[in-house]
């Protein structure tokens, strides 16, 4: 994606700004994907509508130019994710039921706190081979893989921790709800066995997940030792907050959350989830004044404070 020059304010040469510049140079920020991240992170706790001018203003600090925002929003509306209307001379967009149906499963999955000890149960999805085509099953495999499901057979997918309600939402993304069965199954022995280890190794790309976690930790971990309160303006805090969510989104959603005895030693996912939670809740109070200002500047009704459940994201602020 071609970006315009990043909009900066005071503190442009701070250590946080330099780290942010490095992150922006090393991760991809497609217009459509970053808008979906913003809708999930900022809009979902506040409502369903947002002014185009508010979107443009908030994304400008990441260097996403107005033309790219307009193009991405137009395509989201064309695909049924957004409804467009006008209030006076201002364009306003409402996330549709179809749009939230696509955004919510990943949003819920990303922000849920790390689970407790595994109970040995698997969520399984079976697709009807007789009523689905090979292409439909391949498309479903891509979506389910994005949500952390592993394909254990051509029409069978497994996940160690996701509940059936969220599974139903994810199945809705595939469009194959009517030709699929989801159930919870229990292993005979939840301890490590050769057969279980072989299945995990062949089903989930743990080497790729580990490498991605390490790469992203190298980019974002230096922020943990920065004095964010002193070095971050509200706009910079928002930039880092959105990059944190966007940067880790793919790897976190693809991570099935396997129990420790099925993971490599020194699994980087643990460190990553701790870092995400710590940075997120340090950045939220610093960035919210920027969010409110951008929404108020657009005369947005979503400028109100986020809902109470917002404060439970990622398990809430660490005590």
Description of the molecule:
This protein folds into two domains: 1-115 and 205-319, no CATH class; 121-186, 2-Layer Sandwich (Alpha-Beta Plaits). It is built from twelve helices and seven strands. It has helices at residues 15-26, 31-43, 52-60, 66-78, 97-111, 134-146, 164-174, 194-203, 206-220, 228-231, 234-254, 268-297, and strands at residues 49-51, 82-87, 90-95, 121-127, 150-153, 156-159, 180-186. The strands form two sheets. Strands 5-6-4-7 form a four-stranded antiparallel beta sheet. Strands 1-3-2 form a three-stranded antiparallel beta sheet. Strand 2 (82-87) and strand 3 (90-95) form a beta hairpin. Helix 6 (134-146) packs across helix 7 (164-174), helix 9 (206-220) runs antiparallel to helix 11 (234-254) and helix 11 (234-254) crosses helix 12 (268-297). The chain starts with 14 loop residues before the first helix and ends in a 22-residue tail after the last helix.
Summarize the SSE layout with pairings:
Elements: H1 15-26, H2 31-43, E1 49-51, H3 52-60, H4 66-78, E2 82-87, E3 90-95, H5 97-111, E4 121-127, H6 134-146, E5 150-153, E6 156-159, H7 164-174, E7 180-186, H8 194-203, H9 206-220, H10 228-231, H11 234-254, H12 268-297
Antiparallel strand pairs: 1-3, 2-3, 4-6, 4-7, 5-6
């Amino acid at each position: 994606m071609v970006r315009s020059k990043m909009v900066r304010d005071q503190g442009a040469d701070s250590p946080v700004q330099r780290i942010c510049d490095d992150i922006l140079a090393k991760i991809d920020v497609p217009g459509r994907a970053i808008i979906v991240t913003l809708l999930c992170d900022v809009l979902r706790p506040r409502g369903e509508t947002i002014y185009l001018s508010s979107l443009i203003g908030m994304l400008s600090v990441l260097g996403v130019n107005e033309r790219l925002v307009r193009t991405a929003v137009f395509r989201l509306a064309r695909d049924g994710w957004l409804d467009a209307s006008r209030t006076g001379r201002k364009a306003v967009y409402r996330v549709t039921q179809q749009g939230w149906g696509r955004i919510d499963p990943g949003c819920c999955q990303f922000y849920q706190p790390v689970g407790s000890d595994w109970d040995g149960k698997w969520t399984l999805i079976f697709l009807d081979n007789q009523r689905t085509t090979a292409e439909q099953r391949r498309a479903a495999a891509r979506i389910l893989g994005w949500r952390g499901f592993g394909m254990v057979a051509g029409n069978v997918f497994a996940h160690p921790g996701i509940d059936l309600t969220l599974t139903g939402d994810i199945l809705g993304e595939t469009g194959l709800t009517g030709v699929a069965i989801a159930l919870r199954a229990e292993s005979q022995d939840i301890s490590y066995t050769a057969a279980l280890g072989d299945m995990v190794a062949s089903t989930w790309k743990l080497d790729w997940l580990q490498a991605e976690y390490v790469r992203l930790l190298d980019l974002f971990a230096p922020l943990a030792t920065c004095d964010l309160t002193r070095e971050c303006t509200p706009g910079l805090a928002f930039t880092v907050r959105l990059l944190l969510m966007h940067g880790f989104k793919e790897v976190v959603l693809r991570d099935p959350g396997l129990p420790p005895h099925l993971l490599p030693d020194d699994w980087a996912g643990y460190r990553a989830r701790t870092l995400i939670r710590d940075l997120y809740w340090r950045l939220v109070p610093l960035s919210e004044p920027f969010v409110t200002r951008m929404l108020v500047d657009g005369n947005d009704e979503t400028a109100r404070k986020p809902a109470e459940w917002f404060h439970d994201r990622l398990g809430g602020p660490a005590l």
